[in-house]
Amino acid sequence: MRNRFKLALGPEAKELRDQLVEFRTLLEEVTTTHQYTDWFLHEDRREVARALRDSAARRDDETLKLAMTRVADAWDEIFALAPAPRMRVRFLGGIEETRYRREDAERAAADLDRFQKMTEVAHTAQIDVEIAIDRLNALERHTHGR
Question: What's the pTM?
């Protein structure tokens, strides 16, 4: 019976736990601060979803795989929702300044809507991270008798 759980747990259980904990921290950042697309492109965050999918593919436990895949999909969705960084423009003056400020206000309102959607997806993903960690803990208890 232990072998079945060991297979379900898969290789590198500690690595998986570290990935999930790191991902949970990234989701907390998304829910507490406004992140633009450039934040997601940083080398520490760029490949997060791919790494989770790769780890999920090495698992035999369907519950764990599903939770990890959902988390990776949520990360992709959050990134897709992230607005592009807004550029600052020098003072233009006159009608151009008025037009620019109006457009900037419209972009800011749209950005707030996107940040709200990002936060909602991140909250759901946090639940999936907890499901994955709980399942990982259960598999470890069955495998190692903890």
Answer: 0.80
